Amino acid sequence: MTYQFDFAALLPYWPEFVHGLWLTLQLSAMATVLGFIVGTLCAIGRADGPPAVKWAVAAYVEVIRNTPLLVQIFLVYFGIATLGFRIGANTAAVAALVVNVGAYTCEIVRAGLESVHKAQLEAADCLGLSRVQTYWHVVLRPAVERVYPALTSQYVLLMLASSITSQISAEELTAVANRVQSDTFRSFETYIVVGLLYLLLSFVVRIAFWLVGLGVFVRRRKLGTAL
Amino acid sequence: MQSFGLAHVEFLAWAALWTVGLSAIAFVGGGLLGFAVALLRVSANPAARLAAIVYIQIVQGTPLLILLFLIYFGVAVIGFTGVPAILAAGAGLTIYASGFLAEIWRGCIQSVPKTQWEAAECLALTRWQRMTRVILPQALRIATPPTVGFLVQIVKNTSLASVVGFVELAQAGKLINNSIFEPFTIFVTVAVFYFALCFPLSTWSRSLERTLNVSRR
Q1: Domain count, chain B
Q2: Which of A136, A179, B32, B215 has the largest CB neighbor count within 10 A?
C-alpha cells in the first residue's frame, strides 16, 4: 500500500464542514419536530378517526414505508417544480423528510396508543375527566412515553438519512463532503472525517433525546421505569 | 422530444432486476457477516463482545451514503482500480446490512428464555452444541419476522447504490429523467416498481408475526 494519507489538505475547509454540520442539524431538527406532529396526528386519525381517515392514513403509511426515501425526495423536489412552484432544495429536503418520517412516527405512536389499557379509560371516566383531558393525560402522554426509545432510534436514523438530501443539492454535510473531495482530490480522507462527524452527531442526537425525555417524562424519572 | 412510453417502462423493469440482484447480494453477504457479528456480540469473551458493539455502533451511526463513498474510494486507495460498481455497491450494502442484522439477531438470541440456556448446560452440552441445538432453533422462530421486515429496508436502500455508478431502479429513473424530463411520471413509475417489490415483503413479515405468534416489542 503506497497511499499517503493527507488530512491536512482538509484543514482549510473546516468552516464549510461546520456549516454543513449545522445545516444537517437544522434539517434534522425541523424534520423531527414537524414529523412528530404529522405522525402523531396520523396515529390519532388511524386509531379514532372516521373510516375514510383511517383508510387514507393506512395508505399513506404503506406507500411511504415501501418506497425509498431517495425516490420520495426526487418526487417532492421535481414534482413540486412541475406543478409550477419554485422551492429551494433545503425546503424540498425538509418537506420530503417530514413526509417520510411522519409515516414511521405514525406506526410507532399507534403501537403506543394501542398499548393503553381500557381500564385506564374507565378510570379516567370515573375521575370525571373530560374527553380532551382523558386523551391528553391518559392516552397520548403515556403512549408516547412508552414508545419514546423507538422514536429516538427512528429520529437518529432520520438524521443519518438526511445525508440523502445531498442528491438534490441541499447544502448539508454530505453535500459539503462531495464538494470538498472534488476540490482536494482527498476523497477517502474527506469521507472518513465526515463519517466520524456523523457518528458524533448520532451520539449527540441520542443524548439530546435522553435529556428531553428527562424533562418531559417527569414521572418516568421519579419511578425509574416506563409506565 | 420523446415522451414517456413503454420502452422506458421496459428499461425500468430491467433495472428492477438489478435492484433485486443487488438486494440478494446484500442480504446473503450481510446475513453471513451479521450472523458472525451477532455470535461475537453474545460470546463469553468480553473483548469479542466489545469489538462487536463497536462495529455495530459504527455501522449504525454513519449514513449508508458515506459508507458507500468510503468503500468506493477506499478500494482505490488500497490499490485496486476499476472495481465494478456492483462489487463496491454490494460490499457497502453488505456491511450496512450486517450491522443492523447483527443487532436484530442479538435481540432474538437473547430473548430465548434463560432457563433454556441453563437446561442445556445441565444436559452437559458444549457451548457450541447449546448454541446450535437449543438456542438458535428457537431464536430462528423469533427472528424470522423482523428479518423479512429488514429485507424491505435493504431493497429500498439499494437505491443509494446509484452514487457509486450502479444502474439500478432509482438510477435508471434518473437517467430517463435526464433525457426526457418528465420527473413526476417517471419517479411515480419508479416508486410503483419499488412498492411492488417491497409491499409483498412487508405483508409477509406481518403475517409471519401473527402466525409465529411473536408479539411486537
Answers
A1: 1
A2: A179
Nearest to B160 among A67, A70, A188 (CB): A70
- In chain A, what residues touch B194 (CB-CB under 8 Å)? 66-68, 71
Band (A227; pLDDT cuts 50, 70, 90): low
Check which CATH number belongs to the domain holding A76 and give it. Answer: 1.10.3720.10
User: With an 8 Å Cβ cutoff, is A69 touching chain B?
Assistant: yes
- Tell me, rounded to whole angstroms, the distance of Cα A211 from its chain centroid: 17
Residue B1 lies in a domain: no
Record the cell numbers describing residue B84, joined without a space: 465494478
Which residue segment(s) compose the domain that B31 sits in?
A: 22-168
Q: Which domain holds residue A145?
A: 12-223
Cell of A96: 420530503
User: Cβ of A199 and B58 within 8 Å?
Assistant: yes
Q: Output the CA–CA distances (angstroms, integers) from residue B98 to B25, B71, B94, B111, in the order listed.
A: 12, 15, 6, 20
Q: For the segment A130-162, what is each residue's pLDDT rounded down to a tens digit?
A: 989 999 999 999 999 999 999 999 999 999 999
Whether ipTM tops 0.85, in short, is yes
